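Design a sequence for this backbone.
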């Protein structure tokens, strides 16, 4: 404790979207803060460790040290970092308060508060339910990026459509067949509305997806594949584009585009495009591959297919998509873009107030 002001540790890893949420909440708390960067051992990057107060999954050769004095509050997201938070709590003699962003999978009583967005299903004591995950790009950063990339993007005809590409997840395989669907829809939008297309990939984009994108890019489109050593135009494009298409696997890009106030279309990434195609063909809805995406009946069917393996699970991406549709902040790809009346609200102030109460702070 520094005087009467609690100090905070924020645990981060290589997952940019998770880090953004934890740091966004830390900013709202406005407490003395240390970001603790942790690297996960290769065998635990995909395989999750058992929920426990443990550091066995941490690669200390690439991580920040954890030494006392222990913090008054620690924020973690995901099982791997929550295990570290539980370990810190144990070292402090249970004095350190713990905030988990997400649903506790075990040791639930050891967390003082769990921040649960609409993409998860949970309730009960010690849980604060919110809408969208706590992330978003601050207006000054958007303005700065807009100026930095103005020369690049001002050359492209308006309206400028940003296509933001994620990658495969455990539940959904992002493959070249899915890319061809996206490009077909993008060409349809350009044919209808004119303008131009700019495509940005991410660190999770598979090489075969990037190759298919490069080969099928509409004439005059801008293509910006992610490279660790190259300047990334993602934030600049979010600021400069007139509307966005985001692949449904990437909750962080979806939320950041929505919070930027952009007309937004979400492109579904199915558990496997081949079974989805087979299902459409078997029901007589697809005389040609995915042509009926524009039909209401086929769209509803595809949404149900897209939800396979997620409903009732740890993270239900289809539930978050539907939340955005229901509140007119987004549309499914294939429907006309609509301008939102206002961006989605940011619940970080409410969460910060709950944590300050937890810490015994009064404003």
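Sequence:
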């Amino acid at each position: 404790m520094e005087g009467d002001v609690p100090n905070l540790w924020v645990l981060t890893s290589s997952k940019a979207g998770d880090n953004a949420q934890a740091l966004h909440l830390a900013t709202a708390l406005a407490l003395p803060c240390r970001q603790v960067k942790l690297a996960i051992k290769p065998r635990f990057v995909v395989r999750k460790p058992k929920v426990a107060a443990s550091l066995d999954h941490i690669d200390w050769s690439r991580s920040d040290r954890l030494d006392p004095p222990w913090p008054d509050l620690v924020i973690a997201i995901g099982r791997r970092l929550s295990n570290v938070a539980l370990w810190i709590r144990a070292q402090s003699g249970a004095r350190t308060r713990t905030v988990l962003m997400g649903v506790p999978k075990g040791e639930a009583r050891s967390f003082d508060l769990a921040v649960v967005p609409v993409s998860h299903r949970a309730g009960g004591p010690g849980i604060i339910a919110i809408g969208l995950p706590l992330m978003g790009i601050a207006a000054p950063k958007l303005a700065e990026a807009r100026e930095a990339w103005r020369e690049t993007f001002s050359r492209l005809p308006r309206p400028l459509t940003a296509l933001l590409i994620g990658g495969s997840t455990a539940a959904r395989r992002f493959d070249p067949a899915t890319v061809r669907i996206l490009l077909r829809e993008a060409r349809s939008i350009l044919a209808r509305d004119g303008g131009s297309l700019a495509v940005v990939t991410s660190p999770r984009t598979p090489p075969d997806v990037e190759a298919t994108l490069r080969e099928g890019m509409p004439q005059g489109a801008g293509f910006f594949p992610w490279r660790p050593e190259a300047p990334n135009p993602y934030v600049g494009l979010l600021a400069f584009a007139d509307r966005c298409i985001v692949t449904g696997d990437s909750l962080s890009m979806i939320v950041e585009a929505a919070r930027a106030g952009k007309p937004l279309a979400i492109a579904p990434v199915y558990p496997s495009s081949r079974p989805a195609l087979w299902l459409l063909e078997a029901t007589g809805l697809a005389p040609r591959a995915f042509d009926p995406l524009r039909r209401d009946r086929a769209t509803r069917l595809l949404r149900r297919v897209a939800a396979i393996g997620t409903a009732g699970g740890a993270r239900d991406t289809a539930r978050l998509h539907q939340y955005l549709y229901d509140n007119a902040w987004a549309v499914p790809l294939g429907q006309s873009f609509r301008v939102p009346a206002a961006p989605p609200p940011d619940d970080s102030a409410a969460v910060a107030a709950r944590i300050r109460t937890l810490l015994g702070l009064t404003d």
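Confidence is low (pLDDT under 50) at residues 272-297, 305-313.
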